[in-house]
Structure formats: C-alpha cells, structure tokens
User: What shape does this take?
Amino acid sequence: MKNFAEDVIIEVFEEIKNVNPDFCKCEKCRRDVIALALTKIRGRYACSPEGEIFARVEQSDRQVRADALFAVMEALEIVTKYPHHSEDDSLSKK
Assistant: This one.
C-alpha cells in the first residue's frame, strides 16, 4: 500500500523550497515540512495495480497539486518559524 499524496507533496516541496530564503535546508526541516504538509491533505492510497494507475493519474490533477502547494507553503512557514533542530544542525546544512 502506498500514499501517492506523499509523492505530490515531495514534488511540490522540491519545486518551491527555495522560495523562502529563511528556510533551513537541513534534512530534519525538510522532513518536518513534508510530514506537516501531509497532515493537511487527504491521503491517496493504492493497494492494487489498477488503483496505482488511478492514483498516478490523479497526481497530475490541478486541484490536487494546488492543495499540495497550499499545504507545503503553510508547512514551510511554520517550520521556518519553529524549527525542531539544534543550532548546530541548521548551521552545518545551510
């Protein structure tokens, strides 16, 4: 079983991660943004080859991508304000 919404969130994150120059580029902050964004959108799960095809087609839907973009932008803002890493982690990854 796979949540195809995760693929959309990751794609959108990779496209816009440099929009906010204050966003820390460390792996911890990246994972936090993705996890937080995933909590904001409906999961799209598939557990059969047919379901996987439908899920992949849905990934290109404009509304799905718009929802993902909104969720990622909101998560980027939150993680930028409240990072959950040590100061050493953020300095070594910028």
Notes: The chain has a mean pLDDT of 84. The helical segments are 4-16, 27-40, 49-59, 62-81, 87-93. The chain has five helices and two strands. The first helix runs from residue 4 to 16.
